[in-house]
Amino acid sequence: MKIKDKNLEELKDIAKEIRELLIDVVSKNGGHLASNLGVVELTIALHYIFNSPEDIMLWDVGHQAYVHKILTGREERFPTIRKKGGLTPFTNPNESIHDGFISGHAGNTLSAALGIHEAKKNNKVIAIIGDAALANGESLEAINNISEKDKNLIIVLNDNEHSIGENVGALSKYMSKIMGKKSYNDFKNEVELLVRKVIFGNSVADFIKRLEHTVKYFFNPGNFFEELGIHYIGPVDGHNLKELISTFEDVKDMEGPVIVHIKTEKGKGYKFAEQNREKFHGISPFDIKTGETCKKNESYSQLFGNKLVELGEKNSEIIAITAGMIKGTGLDKFFEKYPKRSYDVGIAEMHAVTFAGGLAIKGKKPVVAIYSTFLQRAYDQLIHDIALQNLPVLFILDRAGIVGEDGPTHNGIFDIAYLQSIPNIRIMAPFSKEDLEKSLEFAVNDKSGPIAIRIPRDSSFCLNVGFEYGKWQEIKKGNEYLVIAVGSMLKELLIIEKELNKNNVYPTIVGVNFINPLDEKYILENFVKYEKIFILEEGILHGGFSSKILEFLNDKNINKIIHRIGIEGFVEHGKRDEILTDLGLKGKKLVDRLLKK
Ligand SMILES: Cc1ncc(C[n+]2csc(CCOP(=O)(O)OP(=O)(O)O)c2C)c(N)n1
Ligand SMILES: CC(=O)[C@@H](O)[C@H](O)COP(=O)(O)O
Ligand SMILES: [Mg+2]
């Protein structure tokens, strides 16, 4: 879509058209709707004033960059967004020269913007960041650095007073306070009026006095940033194209780092998204007329949340912690029922982990529910603050494995590899609804050290077999083949079992919940009996579960070939089932892999 030669009325029409396109495509593909509806005018104004790609734009998280994609030559492909082989869900320089940097995880943009600016001093760098992502630790580290230098960097703060749900924290409260103050454009108008009065006869002294007062009032709102050496401009109405354009026109040639505070409404222009911003932050396909999505079976996240509510009743030491993902992790019911034992720390995974350490060292039982991919942010805290002191914190690693449409930034495929090398952390991967419930019962009452429980982005499946600490479960006794399935992979294996039988293969099937500690007894007693051994895991193979078994066999001098089926390299976006199938972890491809060897 071309916008440079348009007048204001035409730009307003384009905004309307883009909103319709966003609603239409997201209703079919699912995606991040509310944030995008909120930045339609903002993105148009940015592209109207600045010249991408010479002026380099970076979008924090990138979930709100759909409009940017539409305005930078990707309009035709926009209906493919989040689909396998289609446009990616966030920004990616491999997709377009208009995407300044990879995004997906909150808080990397300001650091990347500063780096890009240092490398390309003649280009303008514009970093667009949300109010919740601004409070992320990495963002604040970057601000600290940016403000020290005289950088010609433009930070656009898109303040909709929401994270996925309500925003939390002191910075958010501060921003809300200044948002109520007189707007940047009111200030401009006031100055204009004063100048006119001087011209038409008021005394210069009076003019200067009043100007000083106005300027003070104007700068006060953003005092925090001003004190840090970053010019503050705002607040600006993020849905008023005229105001936005005139503001960016002013900002374009300003010297030094500047933060432009834009006030937007998440979900703007679609009734259901305005009424329920959280639901429409990231939504599965929905009916445009009613705003309803189709009902799905209970997810593992919901199951975890429900079980924790029950366990919280019996054990008052349980404390729930999330880093900005109350609903996604299934903790909403616990938060509702036990508000005093619930903490949403914002997008602050590092803090969440060490905060839990503090609680645990004084006898509480913190349950920290974070998506597997986001826990990567807190690796040092896991080692230094938790494992080294062997603190009994329970980590719920949600979205462990393939997440689907959110793609490579969000797949939780590294956790087994990154956790199992850390001493003291036990890792579990429940394989069914019942197994997850029993795992939680065990883990919340365990006081001996940290435990991480992996749960997949999937609806739960029922299988009630035994549960014993450290023990793998033999689900079926067969002959010749031994197939060991970790967590989520057991369901996939049981689904295709009949196909194997049709080919005269009757494997012994083992469900692995306990990744660490290994069930050494089972390995030592059984591996030698089988001609073929397969291990299935929904995680990276290098350094993963099967690697650990190979090390164990090596150390015990057992010479066995193990066929390892898992993930290699980064995995692109698409439906979870499609991706698992492509990877040979599901369906016919899995059958083929098990029969081929
Ligand atoms: C490190 C990290 N933690 C959590 C998330 C999940 N997440 C994605 S968007 C979001 C809220 C972002 O809010 P804000 O920055 O204000 O942008 P808005 O959606 O309101 O435009 C969260 C918590 C993430 N992407 N990265
Ligand atoms: C952009 C982001 O990081 C989140 O909005 C994420 O997409 C949520 O994923 P789920 O939809 O799996 O909760
Ligand atoms: Mg926000």
UniProtKB/TrEMBL annotation:
Domain Transketolase-like pyrimidine-binding: where? 298-462
Q: Quote the catalytic activity from the record.
A: D-glyceraldehyde 3-phosphate + pyruvate + H(+) = 1-deoxy-D-xylulose 5-phosphate + CO2
**Which GO annotations describe the biological process of this protein?**
isopentenyl diphosphate biosynthetic process, methylerythritol 4-phosphate pathway; terpenoid biosynthetic process; thiamine biosynthetic process
Xref: CDD domains: TPP_DXS, TPP_PYR_DXS_TK_like
> What enzyme class is recorded for this protein?
transferase
Describe its function: Catalyzes the acyloin condensation reaction between C atoms 2 and 3 of pyruvate and glyceraldehyde 3-phosphate to yield 1-deoxy-D-xylulose-5-phosphate (DXP).
Q: What is this protein called?
A: 1-deoxy-D-xylulose-5-phosphate synthase
* Organism encoding this protein: Haliovirga abyssi
